[in-house]
Amino acid sequence: MSAPTLSRRHRIRRGALTVALATCVGAALVSCSDASSDGAGVAAGQSAASPAADARLARLAQQAADTGSLGVIVRVDSGDGKPVEIAKQAAWTKDDHTLAAGDQFRVGSNTKTVTATLVLQQVAENKISLDDTVEKWLPGVVKNGNDITVRMLLNHTSGLGDFLLTPEFLPSLTGQEKRTWRPQELLAITPDQDPPAEPGETYSYSNANYEALGLILEKATGSSLAELIKEKITGPLKMNDSYLATDADWNTGGQHVTGYEPNAERLKEILSDTVYLPDGVGFAGPERPDDNVDTSAIDPSWSWAAGDMVSTAADWQTFLTALNSGELLPEAQLKQMRTTVDAPEEGGGYGLGLMRVDTDCGTVWGHTGGLPGYSSEIYTDATGTRSVAVFSNTNFGIKDKAAATANKALVEAATCQMLGKAQPSDRPTG
Asked: What CA–CA distance (Å, rounded) separates 358 from 379?
């Protein structure tokens, strides 16, 4: 399969493919679509946490599923010990799997927050410095390694591009070619940032940064990344449904979400305004209704430290709550993690593996994730007391305008409900 030809006029920021698979389909909290939501927020006079608000959230979830998200898991924890859990799906997807709020899910780039947490734990123990050069830890592995620091890898200011759109890698990304990639191989094919930038100069999201960080962690600790995650994160927090995947299998025996993407023809149509895809470029998998394919068997192990974790909504909220409440990092390192560079395409700023997203209902902290068939947004408030997770079992499918609008309305409503606030369209005026 040939890689798509990307002329400059067809590129948008990191390119449509990179955007969707690096951080989710475009920060639903801020600008998934220029169209407005349907106003189905918390009505004036109603509590943001009430049976009426919960029912409205369920309706928005079903609307999103029927409009293109296909399957949606929403979990809102307002810090009162009574989380709201919702699972809705398009009717035909029930033939493959009946969705439940506790199903396992590929959380994609949310994994970066775990990797960054592990690095900052090593910083707190004086085993790694944020000012260490990449060359110190990985001699000869990363281009310009003498000029790139650990901090620059963490906040995506390294000047490295992304390997996702390279002709060598794209067939693996779409599942058309089965190949096990080592992080060193991915770093070897990583291009320069486009347009070029010196290390430390500008923010540009790249999975290559976190491939390098995974290698640095293993070298600094003498342990594998999977061992570190279990020892430092999932074990202590009793995240029993979370692990770093090594292949396309789902290893725990629990229920997992079936992921879908548009077939080649529909994918080309969805992306036509942003990137040119030659005919036939699409995701591998069994054909499903409404011009979709089942992408659940595509191997995500290439994403490793950048995006390879499997988890559940409840498990990941446990992690993010522990992180932002100060349980996993000393105060100094949490402050470093929250020191952000400008990242308007993410809805605010990007720290050290942690996004700051400025919503109309308040500022939230977390990350987004995207892999073939899986898209997620998970956030907490500043104290880690309240949290929200929204999972969709398609990634490129919610790039479609109508689907993006419905997804945006759902994420906005869930986030405002998490923060205990009415949506702006429902607040009294004057």
From this structure: 11
Distance separating alpha carbons of residues 208 and 191, to the nearest angstrom: 10
Half-sphere exposure of 67 (CA within 13 A, CB side): 19
- Residue 360 CA to residue 343 CA, distance in Å, equals 17
Q: Which residues pair with 379 in a beta bridge?
A: 366, 388
Omega before 424 within 30 of 0, i.e. cis:
no
270: number of CA atoms within 13 Å, CB side? 26
- Residue 378's SS3 state is strand
Would you state the structure tokens that stand for residue 222, as one six-digit string?
A: 């003498």
Tens digit of pLDDT per residue, the chain (430 long)? 333 333 222 333 334 455 455 444 334 454 333 333 333 334 433 445 688 899 999 999 999 999 999 999 999 999 988 899 999 999 999 999 999 999 999 999 999 999 999 999 999 999 999 999 999 999 999 999 999 999 999 999 999 999 998 999 999 999 999 999 999 999 999 999 988 999 999 999 999 999 999 999 999 999 999 999 999 999 999 999 999 999 888 876 679 999 999 999 999 999 988 888 888 889 999 999 999 999 999 999 999 999 999 999 999 999 999 999 999 999 999 999 999 999 988 889 999 999 999 999 999 999 999 999 999 999 999 999 999 999 999 999 999 999 999 999 999 999 999 999 987 655 544 4
| Non-local CB neighbours of 283 within 8 Å, separated by 6+ positions | 174, 175, 176, 261, 263, 264, 267, 293, 295, 298, 372, 373
Residue 295's closest CA among 312, 277, 283?
283
Pull the structure tokens for residue 352. Answer: 């050290």
Whole-model pTM: value is 0.90
Token pair of 297 as six digits: 């068997």
